[in-house]
Design a protein that fits this description.
mainly beta; Jelly Rolls; five-stranded antiparallel sheet; globular
Amino acid sequence: MGGGIATWLIYRAADGGLSLFSLVVPAGSATPVHDHLAWGLVGLYAGEQEERVYRRLDRPGGEGQHDEGHATLELVEQNRLQPSDFYLLMPPEGDIHSVATISSTPSVSIHLLGNDTGCVWRHSYEPETGTVRAFRSGWSNRECAPE
């Protein structure tokens, strides 16, 4: 994800249906706006974060038209997170977000997701321009299987 952000895989199921990992975001850094394409439970262990949650207005079968390279996002929630706070990720709503470390120390969160999040192709969004691109975040300490 860049910016010194690290994703440390703790466990992944052999079938790719589950991953447990830690996300470390340095002070002053933020993730891009991104999706997960799976349910998830996230808990903040250390530091403080601001989470921005978006809703996609042009999903297939939903409002508006769908274009693979374009996404219309609406900011629907901003959350300030302290250690021991947690939140759910539930696609299709509530699955697109970004997190920024707002403390003077790195933030560390623990994620349990219903896919091999680092190795699946997901989406990164630029809400200001409406652009969307496919990406794989990878793992800082493990390889993804070749495609």
